[in-house]
Write a structure and sequence with these properties.
The complex is a heterodimer.
Chain A lengths: L1 E10 L3 E11 L3 E7 L5 H8 L7 E6 L2 E2 L4 H6 L1 E4 L11 H11 L4 H14 L15 H13 L5 E5 L7 H16 L3 E5 L3 H7 L2 E6 L2 E6 L1 H8 L4 H14 L1
Parallel strand pairs in A: 3-8, 3-9, 6-7, 7-8
Antiparallel strand pairs in A: 1-2, 1-4, 4-5, 9-10
Chain B lengths: L3 H15 L7 H37 L7 H28 L3 H4 L6 H16 L1 H18 L5 H11 L2 H18 L5 H24 L6 H9 L4 H9 L2 H11 L2 H31 L12 H6 L6 H15 L1 H24 L6 H10 L2 H21 L15 H5 L4 H31 L3 H28 L8 H5 L3 H28 L4 H33 L4
Helix pairs in contact in B: 1-5, 2-3, 2-6, 2-23, 3-5, 3-6, 3-8, 3-9, 5-13, 6-7, 7-12, 8-13, 9-16, 12-13, 15-16, 15-20, 16-20, 18-20, 18-21, 18-23, 20-21, 20-24, 21-23, 21-24, 23-24
The chains are: A alpha/beta, B mainly alpha.
Chain lengths: ~240, ~550
């Protein structure tokens, strides 16, 4: 469960990235987070993960305030960043082990979990090589494995499908469903509306730092009577700006 | 050959990439500016003063025999050699290994425009200190000869372009090496080979300096007055632009200026010709292909080991420092090669004893020798942690992945201490492995060795703490390849300035005040140095760990 209350974030005291935003993301659901470039998606995700500090308001993950108990909150989050090219001088196995160490994953669990994840994403043949030599997609897969190795209750994923091959994308989608079936939360940003349509229980649309829609896609389609997702999305934004 | 619009646009972009961005935090920005000014006053100004005094003295001394320009000439040659050696790794990296290459190649610009724009950006960024040095040397020369200050005007273009030819030498060597290296195909392997070449170049430079074992400047001038001009003749062949520049400056000779411009243009054209011929081929010839046999993941997973968070973080830092060629060359290699620097200074300096002589000093209890040894250990332990830049680039090295520090469930203090520990352990080991061998060779008593270890421990600790703190104020997070994390990073410059100040107070004060004036014994001097360093370490720890972790908490990405 993620609770965001009256959160505001400005850059240099001038540019308002998030504007008094409130949202409650329930457990047991996959939530797609959609918005135009610069709408505030990444800023909000970064505040939810502790990378950025909100100027005002509170963010609670599983009932814990990120400002007051940052380490506990971070331990319960699995976060995939939008740039997968980190620690490229480490081999795949060294990277996974490093992440397992900092998330304090017991040895037996990490062996089982890593073995399972490496198999799911077809990384078995690459683990002993420096990530410098991996393709973009392979690096993205490593980020997915690293984010999930400690079995976090809340998954926060920034554009997780970019660079994944169809097999890995299917594996990740399946894992998302399994995760929410256990009563956990998946919150992910995407630009691909078809992915949101097929995968999400609900969607949140952000524009100019405000949530302009939060609910099911079906309700939105019924309200606007439009089947083309792009047109629908643009219509919602147009309406919100008009209001 | 060149589309000037493309060339200028590319140069502008590359220059922006190379520069350090300012922090959003006003307080951090103020602190950073203060430290920068302080360091400029403590490093650059004394360095410029010494150089200008050298030129002034030599000009005055040689005026009577009509060789008044020798001082300025020697300074220009030194600047040229320095530029050649130290810009080589920069040009190599910028032309071939920066991350933007793959994005730039598909653009509709000629490879030669890319290469020249990169060269120009390096030239502008790398030569500020050299140009300042030439400028103050010229002022001294003009004052010594009582020339008109307006003489500078005609030579202005030469002052700012003097390092072009040495840099073109470096660039041409890079182009030739990489032209043949393309057949290796593996980018990582080429990087490692080029690292070895750069290390070899540094070796050559320092051995060449240490070859001045019996160098006596007075004797050199005497020989010079008697017609021995070998050194200058060789240097004139290598750097033909310098004599022309001095002639323009001294005699206001327009013809010399024109020939200077023509020679520089010829060098630039040679570089452009070679770049046109080989740059694109060499760049696209490289890849990070790896065809070695892979191990089964099941086997690898069985070998996994569990570490504490602190140990895991330190190990990660160590692997990144060792395996990244730019970090290895700039941060690690100096800890291995510092004895060569020390040997060079020792050879050039007045204290040139054999090991058996030093053993004799130890046996007879020669206090003067022991004091010098004590100050040498103190000096190295203060300067090396600043020179290797490990501490002062702790956070800068994270670059665009700085956010990793923020979202992992590891306290900022633990991460701060891990970065401090890795910089401490590499430096302390680098110093004390060699000094221990040296202590054993000269038969130093164990009591002295323990005191020296303690001093080294405190000195390395205090400078490392200071370095990590400085980098936490305003880390350089925007860079497109690892080399740029270290270049133009003022934090390393500031750390060096403060380390020099500590070095001056501890070693200068220790020798000239405690030993020479108060005639204290080595025991008392050691005690005073330990107290000073202990005080500094405690002060730095109290101030920086709390403030440093707060800086990191408040730092908002690149």
């Amino acid at each position: 469960m993620i609770e965001i209350k009256n959160v505001t974030k400005t850059y240099n005291g001038k540019i308002v990235a998030i504007d008094n935003l409130s949202m409650s993301i329930p457990s047991g659901k996959i939530i797609g987070f959609i918005g135009l470039n610069g709408a505030g998606k990444t800023t909000l995700i970064k505040m939810m993960t502790g990378i950025l500090k909100a100027d005002k308001g509170t963010i609670k993950i599983d009932g814990l305030d990120i400002e007051k108990e940052p380490l506990k909150v971070k331990q319960s989050i699995g976060y995939i960043t939008d740039s997968p090219d980190m620690f490229l001088r480490l081999t795949g196995i060294e990277f996974i082990n490093f992440i397992s160490d900092i998330y304090k994953v017991p040895l037996s669990t990490r062996k089982k979990r890593n073995s399972y994840l490496a198999k799911q994403f077809g990384l078995e043949e690459l683990l002993d090589k420096p990530m410098q030599g991996y393709s973009h997609g392979m690096r993205q897969k490593m980020m997915v494995v690293a984010a999930l190795v400690h079995e976090p209750s809340v998954w926060i994923l920034d554009e997780p499908m970019i660079g994944l091959d169809p097999k890995s994308a299917v594996a990740l989608k399946k894992m998302m469903h399994e995760h929410v079936d256990k009563g956990n939360t998946v919150f992910f940003s995407t630009h691909v509306l078809e992915v949101a349509e097929k995968l999400c229980d609900e969607i949140a649309i952000i524009d100019e730092g405000k949530i302009i829609y939060f609910g099911t896609l079906d309700d939105l389609i019924k309200k606007y009577k439009k089947k083309d997702l792009e047109e629908l999305f643009l219509e919602v934004i147009k309406d919100a700006r008009h209001d | 050959m060149l589309d000037m619009t493309n060339y200028l646009a590319l140069t502008k972009v590359f220059l922006k990439n190379l520069k350090m961005s300012k922090s959003n935090n006003k307080k951090a920005r103020r602190m950073f500016t203060f430290l920068l000014i302080f360091t400029f006053l403590f490093i650059i100004v004394p360095f410029l003063l010494i150089s200008s005094l050298f030129v002034y003295d030599t000009t005055i001394q040689l005026m009577d025999i009509n060789y008044e320009s020798i001082g300025l000439q020697i300074m220009c040659y030194l600047v040229s050699v320095f530029t050649f050696v130290f810009t080589f790794p920069v040009i190599l990296n910028e032309l071939y290994f920066s991350d933007d290459i793959e994005k730039l190649i598909p653009l509709p610009v000629k490879p030669v425009e890319l290469a020249f724009a990169k060269f120009t950006a390096c030239f502008i960024v790398e030569n500020l200190v050299q140009i300042l040095l030439i400028f103050v040397s010229i002022l001294s020369y003009i004052f010594a000869l009582r020339l008109k200050v307006t003489n500078i005007l005609l030579a202005l273009i030469q002052i700012v372009t003097l390092p072009i030819i040495p840099m073109i030498y470096s660039a041409i060597i890079c182009l030739i090496i990489m032209h043949f290296a393309k057949y290796i195909k593996n980018k990582e392997l080429i990087k490692r080979f080029s690292s070895v070449f750069v290390v070899g170049l540094f070796f050559f430079f320092f051995f060449a300096v240490s070859a001045f074992k019996d160098f006596n400047f007075e004797l050199y001038l005497e020989n010079f007055a008697n017609g021995d001009h070998r050194f200058l003749t060789i240097m004139n062949y290598i750097f033909p632009q310098i004599n022309l520049f001095i002639d323009t400056l001294t005699n206001q000779n327009v013809l010399s200026l024109i020939i200077y411009i023509l020679i520089t243009l010829v060098f630039i054209l040679i570089f452009l010709g070679l770049a046109k011929f080989s740059y694109l081929d060499s760049v696209i010839g490289m890849s990070a292909k790896d065809t070695s046999v892979h191990q089964r993941s099941s086997k690898l997973l069985k070998k996994l080991k569990e570490h504490s968070t602190f140990k895991a973080y330190v190990l990660k830092e160590f692997k990144v420092l060792i395996r990244t060629p730019s970090f290895f060359i700039n941060c690690i290699i100096i800890n291995i090669l510092w004895p060569i620097f020390a040997y060079t200074i020792y050879k050039v300096g007045p204290m040139n004893y054999s090991i058996s002589k030093m053993h004799e000093f130890v046996v007879t209890g020669d206090s003067s020798f022991k004091i010098k040894l004590l100050l040498l250990v103190t000096g190295i332990s203060i300067l090396l942690p600043a020179m290797n830049s490990i501490a002062a680039t702790s956070f800068s090295r994270e670059g665009k992945h700085f956010s990793f520090i923020k979202y992992i469930p590891v306290g900022y203090k633990t991460q701060w201490l891990s970065k401090l520990f890795i910089s401490f352990i590499i430096t302390f080991a680098g110093i004390n492995i060699y000094t221990t061998i040296f202590y054993i060779m000269i038969g130093l008593p164990i009591s002295n060795i323990i005191v020296f270890y303690l001093i080294s421990f405190l000195a390395v600790s205090s400078v490392c703490i200071m370095g990590v703190y400085i980098d936490s104020i305003q880390p350089k997070l925007i860079w497109d390849d690892e080399n740029n994390a270290l270049r133009e990073n003022y934090n390393t410059f500031i750390a060096m300035g403060i380390a020099l100040l500590i070095f001056g107070i501890t070693c200068g004060g220790g020798y000239y005040y405690l030993y020479d004036k108060l005639h204290m014994t080595i025991g008392y001097i050691s005690f005073v140095i330990i107290l000073c360093l202990l005080f500094t370490t405690i002060l730095f720890s109290l101030f920086s760990i709390v403030n440093g972790t707060r800086n990191i908490r408040d730092q908002e990405e690149a």
